[in-house]
Amino acid sequence: VDQGGDREEVLYILNSIIRQYESAKLKVGNEVLLLRYIWNDVDRDDSNTINEKEMGELLNRINFHVKEKSTGAMYQKFVKTLGLTKTQRKQGLSFDQCVTLLHKTKRDMATWQVKPVTQLFYDIFGQFMTKNKIRKKVSATSFLNKFLLTVQGEDNRTMEYVMQIFAKLHQLELADVSNHITEQNYISLEQFEAYLLSRDNDIFNPMREQVCKSSDMSRPLSEYWINSSHNTYLTGDQLTSKSSVEMYTKALYRGCRCLELDVWDGARDEFGNPMPVVYHGRTLTSKIMFEDIIKSLDVFLMLNPKTYPIILSLENHCSIPFQQTMATQMKSILGRQLYVPDESSLRGSLPSPSQLRGKVVLKGRRPTTGAFDDYDTDDDAADDDLTEMQSVRTEKTSVTGNTKKSQTSVKIAPELAKLTLFHGTKFKSWRESEQALTHHMHSFSESRVRSFCKHNQSQSWIQYNQTHISRTFPSGNRTNSSNYSPILAWATGCQMVALNLQTADEMVRMNYGRFRENGEQGYVRKPSTLMMKGVTEPRTTHIEVKILSGSCIPKPKGVSDGECINPYVNVTLFDCSEGREVTSTQVTNTVFNNGFSPIWKFEDSFHFDVKNACVAVMQFTVMDKNSTPTKTDEFIASASIPI
């Protein structure tokens, strides 16, 4: 590219490679794929074989601990089984032979311990076939009737679907073991295990991950949860971290569709033109150009023209000349991609995601009278949060907010105001808010969310959110960019539940689980219980969970060296009941020195009573137990599943 090459062509080639890889790796079993990842690192002499010395490093890399003396004995025993000559033994094992050894190691370890997959296989399909032979395969008919329809309850499955699954399993590169099934309408125990570990059997319903039909995206914006970010520009904490344009691109590709910009007056260029900047005002965070962020949105929309609307939450601290420049830059860079509402569109229901597809929508200030407005930003909303008793708004009373703040007015440039759809207004009472135009919306800090719910205002808020928009954001006290639980805000129908996405904590992981639905497009239809008129009781249910086993679990942070891991699993239910968050966690035993094929005590079950099934999320987190008691356990991986 530096020498005049075509940048777009380079990007196209790289993307093609990634797509080919993502497609190809689905045709490879876990153990084979793991060995491919580490082969070149372990094969230090580039002989394309693994000798006895290198075998110890290979086992450590896959997180399977074997004592040094035992490694040699295991290697020698296996090469004898293969019938290798002395010369061949010194040369080492080929890739296929190593795969077979890994499979044999997993199969034969802890012979006293029942393998959960084997137990499932026998329990579902029967341990014996005809003539009392041990079952080694299962037919497509049995797989459909006994497993998918009966055990899994997947009522929509057909024989055609099963044959597609079987075809994929027969194409899958697995260990070359003796139990190899060639008949296309049968699969082996190993292929059954591969299915259990595949995306086709994901605990998150694959059907819900597909992009919704256009008709499902034709409701007003108020009827959707919208994946939202707080202070999107920050790479770390709220006081000293770097601001980066790249954070907007990262957020968009993670499915976030409501981005925040704190815009301030910057310098002027050599011609005297204003240059608005984005940063966390009155802190040591670095500054980036407002114009560069808008350019990054333009690039994203060019590559993803059918994306559902990108909402920019503008925290506008600029003087009039700089606001005028903001408006000019957005119009010139985004062109027709910038949604400009006319007066008629501001009456009645909000537009739908389908109507705004491929558009950038502004949230800010659109004063109805004059050019002044006294409330909008997160700072204003946070300042207006008094004590819990003071912050309660009832249908009969209205508590005056920060009087000093309310006396301060901010002038709005008409050029910017007319580009804005969502107009942030000060909350006084639910009755008054419901009567406002639908493009008028509120922002609340996390403390206000808890206060409303604690004081029995959840139902009023749910009713308001059926036609209007609410945005919630973290407390200003979270200077380390930690996050609050989004559960209560979701439960009251809040659409924009903004989180610090740069912090990969359990709340952000929960948010990712929520928005896996609908193809990670950033918009998920709210459940029907949040759209009903009048009081509705939350749906309850009971869930029993058994953690069986793991496969090819990596070391924390993807490192290649270090000790073998000691994995255990946290199972956490994030829920709410009677206006309060309810969180319960249960933990498996720890399996020491084995991340390759750990088996937990699956005889015991975890039981969870779900209070609000429409918003509750269950999170499975794999942790590495630190062998040093004074050190904290390390995070490995997590999956969050909406109930």
Radius of gyration of CA atoms, rounded to a whole number: 29 Å
Question: Helicity range of the residues?
Answer: 25-40%
Distance between the termini: 48 Å
How many DSSP E strands? 21
The total of helices stands at 23
Structural class: alpha/beta
Stretches where pLDDT is under 50 for at least 5 consecutive residues are 386-408
Strand order of the largest sheet: 6-5-4-7-8-11-12-13-14-3-15
Q: Give the percentage of residues in beta strands.
A: 15-25%
How is the main sheet built?
11 strands, mixed
Broad shape: globular
Mean pLDDT equals: 90
Strand and helix map with partners:
Layout: H1 7-24, H2 30-42, H3 52-61, H4 68-82, H5 86-91, H6 95-108, H7 116-125, E1 137-139, H8 140-151, H9 159-171, E2 186-188, H10 189-196, H11 206-209, E3 224-229, H12 246-253, E4 258-264, E5 277-278, E6 288-289, H13 290-303, E7 310-316, H14 320-334, E8 360-364, E9 372-373, H15 378-383, H16 388-391, H17 403-406, E10 410-411, H18 414-417, E11 420-424, H19 430-435, E12 440-445, H20 446-454, H21 458-465, E13 470-473, H22 487-491, E14 496-499, H23 506-514, E15 523-525, E16 541-545, E17 567-577, E18 580-587, E19 606-610, E20 617-624, E21 634-642
Parallel strand pairs: 3-14, 4-7, 7-8, 8-11, 11-12, 12-13, 13-14
Antiparallel strand pairs: 1-2, 3-15, 4-5, 5-6, 9-10, 16-19, 17-18, 17-20, 20-21
